[in-house]
Amino acid sequence: MRLNIDTFHVLNTILQEGSFAKASIKLHRAQSAISYQIKKLEDHLGTKIFDRSQYRATLTPVGQALWTEGCKMLELAHRIEGLAERYSEGWEPRLELVIDGSLPLAPVMRALKKMMGKDIPTIIQVKTEFLGGVQMHFERDKSDMMLVKEYKPAPNLIALQLNPVAVVLVAAKDHELSSMAEVSLNQLYDYVELTIHDTSDPDKETLDSLEFGGDRVFYLSDFMSKKEALLMGLGYGWMPEVLISKELQAGDLVQLNYSGSSYQSFTPHLVYPSDRPLGKAGTMIKDLIISELSSTMK
Description:
This is LysR family transcriptional regulator. The chain is of the alpha/beta class and 298 residues long. It has three domains: 5-88, Arc Repressor Mutant, subunit A (Orthogonal Bundle), CATH 1.10.10.10; 94-163 and 267-296, 3-Layer(aba) Sandwich (D-Maltodextrin-Binding Protein, domain 2), CATH 3.40.190; 165-265, 3-Layer(aba) Sandwich (D-Maltodextrin-Binding Protein, domain 2), CATH 3.40.190.290. It has ten helices and 13 strands. Helix 5 links the parallel strand 3 and strand 4. It is elongated, with a radius of gyration of 31 Å.
């Protein structure tokens, strides 16, 4: 005999109802069948679960310990059954979202927080990549969705256009470029450009569309380290305006007077594959992200 959920369900019912007789009524089974099932369990385990020396059978210490563990098994079984039911209703077991780190993450985090406040069975995983690394990981890992600055369109991809994100060419207030009345491209080449490292294939030289491509370039891992380097006066670079609004207002960072325009914008997209339609969790997070980003970037 192997241990099974039904045996512990019978044991639990006996204890809840207070007797074998009442348990048989509750379970719509013969009392002899219930007694036999418990006896088989005792024989299999080689120990007594019930003390039958009194008028009413009671749990032995070993039986009490086994019942405690059995309750955990019943709770787990109940959870598994509940998950299976939720999955059959259209909820995904797992959802993976890849985000471009150049986009403001706070709205995405707010969307995720709202989802966590709901009773959903889906496990959500979020990865942050940069530039070509977003789509590379999206395709390689078969992710469910990507929030991306730039991407390569494909027939099997559905792309939802979001509000534009403004980026500003800045340097620290005490950087030489910040005091110039007008900055030319050649003058930019004389200083260190700070940019974000592409997390795609390291063998491919993929440049950001806003990168100037000079010889003096420092690649950083993310926008937080880039902002820190800018504030230290290490160089100049493009930053999403939403990430440096306080520093611009305080004057710690200065928008450069670049002759080719120091203010640009790009249109991010929320992309997912058409051959793997979004389930309930995917649809919910899509709508929440669009709502949060739209209100943030107005």
